[in-house]
Amino acid sequence: MVQIWFMDTDQSDQRLEHKRTPPEYMELSELYMKTGVEYFKINADDYLNDKQLNELRTNRGYTYEDEVQADLFLLVHGYLHDFCLQLQITCSEQCLPDYANKLKAFYTEHLHTDEEIRLILDGSGYFDVRDGDDNWLRIQVVKGDMIIIPAGIYHRFTLDTNNFIRTRRYFIGEPVWAPHNRPADDMDCRKAYLQHLGQLTKV
Question: Which terminus of the chain has fewer CB atoms gathered within 10 Å of its CB, N or C?
Fold first, then answer.
């Protein structure tokens, strides 16, 4: 089961757990209400035939099936978004030159104008997202976890100490993958996200 916890403020190795002392956890049932982030459990060994994933693809318009193997260097620099509508990404220390610095670059807090949809096919890592009070929440993802990060939320990603993850990305319509580093509060997607978050907290 996916775990979610509030992060400490320690600036050491980003791949460590960084739990508060004592640890403070968030229940999965609270994640959407507090952040707008959605979570699904998918059969990663047979994802093409997974009923829930196929329903999500149909209902949300995840329509393209192109696939590539890539490393974090390409991912960080955004080279993939022009030609891949659905991506399979392998990231590890062995495949990535200057691994430590590239991983730090991807750890920069940012947002996107579209949803960020990730299915973990193998390995593990952390998605960090800001809650409504600007706290960092760390979401641990492993094989079979599918996470949908809404447009406009500040977030970041890092590998954990296993130093390996293989993921699949999905896009709605024309693919757009462009990170906008914080501060980006004047962007329309950010304003729309905050409005949506305010509605969620009133429910």
Answer: C
Q: What is the pTM of this model?
A: 0.86
pLDDT of residue 89: 59
Which residues does the chain have with pLDDT short of 70? 64-97, 99, 102-103, 105
Give the tokens for residue 130: 């800001």
Instruction: State yes or no: 17 annotated in a binding site.
Output: no
Phi, psi of 99, rounded to the nearest 5 degrees: -50, -50
Per-residue tokens: 32 = 């959407």
DSSP per-residue codes, the chain: --EEEEB----S-TTS--B-SS--B--HHHHHHHH--EEEE--GGGGGG-HHHHHHHHHHTB---------HHHHHHTTTTTT-SEEEEEEETTT-TTHHHHHHHHTS-EE-SS-EEEEEEEEEEEEEEE-TTS-EEEEEEETTEEEEEPTT--EEEEE-TT-EEEEEEE-BSS-----EESP-TTSHHHHHHHHHHHHHHH-
106-145 pLDDT, tens digit each: 789 999 999 989 999 888 899 999 999 999 999 999 999 9
* 18 has binding-site annotation: no
Residue 81 marked as a ligand binder:
no
Strands 3-6 and 116-130: unpaired
Query: Does 112 count as an annotated binding residue?
Result: yes
Length of the chain: 203
